[in-house]
Amino acid sequence: MDDVLLFLFKKKAHLQPVPVTTIEIGETLGMSQQNASRRLQLLEKQGYVKRLRQGTRLTKKAINEISGLHLSLKKVFEEGELEIEGTVTKGRGEGGYYLKLEGYRKQMRKKLGFEPYPGTLNIKLSNLKKREQLLRLEPVVITGFKENDRAYGDLFAYKCRLEGHDCAILIPLRTHHGPKILEIVCPFNIRKQLEKRDGDRIRVIVW
């Protein structure tokens, strides 16, 4: 069961709208206020919650599907890992530009534990439900910054392993990619070192 949904369920949001803030959700569930806000927006977009003037309320969809969510997420959390598969696809080249910025690189060295290669590998997901499961996990937040009067947004990173190598899935708050595309960053050029080409199958383990 999604922990934000469970929190709202315990607050009896299935019975009536309840006044709740993202700060309260974050403090209770041990996540940042920023991530709590993102999670709540995602649940609203998916039709699981409604945010009204009186407060937040769980929808009929949430109540009907809560047992299914529980079974799906229980397996993910008990195993402690999430397996994601997709095929290598050509990117726009934007990842290389942003990963050269020291404002991001410094945080990645500290929070991810490696020096990122200035470029990402794009994969097209085989199953969109895997993305939904990924987004319910707590990310490593790479905080946005300003440089030369330009603002750069936050990145959400999820540590993973690709063929035994430590890597990370990056999800920018603002991106031109559709939901089927994920970007992977590693300490090296994945295409060259692992000899990957467009159309090749990729499997990563999120932990």
Characteristics:
two-stranded antiparallel sheet, single chain, 2 domains, 207 residues, Arc Repressor Mutant, subunit A, 37% helix, alpha+beta, 6-stranded antiparallel beta barrel, 8 helices, Elongation Factor Tu (Ef-tu), domain 3
Mind explaining what this structure looks like?
- The protein has 207 residues and is α+β, with helices and mostly antiparallel strands.
- It has 2 domains: 3-79, Arc Repressor Mutant, subunit A (Orthogonal Bundle), CATH 1.10.10; 82-206, Riboflavin kinase-like (Elongation Factor Tu (Ef-tu), domain 3), CATH 2.40.30.30.
- It is 37% helix and 28% strand.
- It contains 8 helices and 11 strands.
- It has helices at 3-10, 22-29, 33-45, 60-79, 94-98, 102-111, 128-135, 190-193; strands spanning 49-52, 55-58, 82-89, 121-125, 140-142, 145-147, 150-152, 155-162, 165-172, 181-185, 201-206.
- A 6-stranded antiparallel barrel has the order 3-4-10-9-8-11.
- α2 (22-29) crosses α3.
- The longest helix has 20 residues, at 60-79.
- The protein is globular and about 55 Å long.
- The mean pLDDT is 87.
